[in-house]
Amino acid sequence: MNKAILILVVLSITQSVFVKRSNDPTKAVFTQLEAMEEHELGKKLLDTIALQLNNKAPLSDIAKMLQQLRENLILNQQEADQKHAQDEVDCETEIYQYNRRIDYASAEITDSTTEIATLTSKVEQLAQDVDNKKIQLDILNEQETQLTEQRANDADDFIKFEHETENVIEAIEVIFTKLSSIQPEQEVVQILTQLNQIGASNPILALMQVASTFSKDQLNNVLNKLSEVSASLEQSLHDARQSEIQAQLDYERLMVEIESQRESLSSAREDSERQLKDNEQALDLQKKRKEDATDELNAATSGKEQKEGECDGWRTQYAADTEHRQQEISIIRQIEEILATKLKNVKVYLLERSSS
Fold first, then answer.
1. Would I find rRNA-binding among this entry's keywords (predicted)?
2. Mean pLDDT over residues 169-180, rounded?
3. Which CATH number among 1.10.390, 1.10.490, 1.10.287, 3.90.1580 corresponds to the domain 46-323+341-356?
4. Rounded CA gap, 234 and 166, in Å?
C-alpha cells in the first residue's frame, strides 16, 4: 500500500516537472546549454562560469575571459592556416624534387639499358674477332712450320740428288775417258790391267771387258750415247739447281708474306683486344650507372611515398584541428550571446545543474 502511494507521488512530480519544462519559455536556452555539455570545452566553460557566478565575479570578467579564449582560438587558427599553407608549399616543393629525381633516374635506367645492350653486343663481336684472329695466327704459324719442314725436306732431297747425279756424271766421264782410250790394235790385257787397279768390284771393269769386243763404229756409238747421257744429266742437274734456287727464293718470299700477315694480324688482334678492354670497361660503367640509377629510383620513390604520407597526415590533422577549433569558437560565441541576452536563464540552468 505504501509502495503504491510512493509510486503515484513520484509519477505526479515527474509529470508536473515535464509539464512545467514543456511550457517553460527557457526550454530553447536549456536545450542549447545541454548540447554544450556534450563538448569538453563547453562543459569546462559552464563549470568556470558557474564558479565565477558563485564567487560573485563581475559579468565583465566572464565576458573578457570568453573573449580572450575566442581570440586565442582565432589566432591559433590563423597560425595553423599559415603553417598549413607553408606545409603545402613544402610538400609540393619536396614532392616536385622527388619527381625530378624519379624522372632523372628513370631516364638514366632507360639510357643505360640501351647502352648495355649495345655494348654487350659489341663486346661479344670483339671477343669473337679476337678469337678469330688468334685462330688465323695459329693457322699462319702452322702453315709456316709446314712450309719450313717441306723446304728442309726438299733441300735435303736436292742435296742427295745433286750428290748422286754428280757421282753418276763423274762415273760417266771416267767410263767415257776409258772407252775413248780403247784402240783396236791395243792389247786388251793392258787396258784391263789398268782398270783392274781401280778395284776388283768396279762395274767399269765389266763394261770395259764388253766394250773391248766392240768394233770401232760400235764403240763410237757407245761413246756418243754416253755423251748424250752425260749432257742430259748435266742439264738435269742444272735445272734442279735452278729449281732449288727458285724454290728457296719462293720459300723466302712466302716467309716474308707470312711474317707480314702475322704482323698485320697481330696488330689487328691487339687493336681488337684494346677495343674489347675499352668496351668491357664501358659496359661495367653502364652497369654501375644502371645500378646507381635503380638505387636512386627506389630511394626517390620511397622518399616520395613517405613524404606524401606525411603530408596527408598533416592535412588530416589540420582538418581535424580546424574542425575542433571552429566548434570551440562556435561554443564560445553561443555562450557569449546567451550571457549577453539570456543571463537570467543561464543562472537558472546553472542552479538546476549544480543541484542535480
1. no
2. 82
3. 1.10.287
4. 8
